[in-house]
Specification:
This is TfoX/Sxy family protein. By secondary structure, the protein is an alpha+beta fold. It contains 3 helices and 6 strands, in the order H-E-E-E-E-H-E-E-H. The chain has helices spanning 5-15, 56-60, 89-104; strands at residues 21-26, 29-34, 37-43, 46-50, 65-70, 73-81. Strands 1-2-3-4-6-5 form a 6-stranded antiparallel β-sheet. Strand 3 (37-43) and strand 4 form a beta hairpin. The chain is globular and about 30 Å long.
């Protein structure tokens, strides 16, 4: 599956030159990892965000968000946000910051 390279570039721009960030092809798209833990990613035209189990319900209440479903298995703690819901840089930045904060709170891999 191809992914939206424009969205990936917007994520790169938001994250800036953070030495803790790496990119890796995952889930048929592109993932951005902080010290080895996934923070956000691009799958198709959508944004994938790791919010953590405790923040899942609040994240799902936001516009365009749905549970991340891996081969028919919903993954609590992960959401997919419709590309149309992150068309504005401010909305995208909020999601990126949330995923980054969750990943930054995990021990390095």
């Amino acid at each position: 599956m191809a992914y939206d390279e424009g969205l990936a570039e917007r994520i790169r721009q938001h994250l800036g030159p953070d030495p803790g960030i790496t990119e890796k092809r995952m889930f048929g798209g592109l993932a951005f990892l902080h010290r080895g833990s996934m923070a956000v990613g691009v799958t198709g035209d959508d944004l994938m965000v790791r919010v953590g189990p405790k923040a899942t319900d609040a994240a799902l209440a936001r516009p365009g968000a749905r549970i991340f479903d891996m081969a028919g298995r919903p993954m609590r703690g992960w959401v997919v946000v419709a590309g149309s819901a992150v068309a504005e840089d401010e909305a995208l930045g909020e999601w990126i910051d949330e995923g980054y904060a969750f990943a930054a709170g995990l021990p390095p891999k």
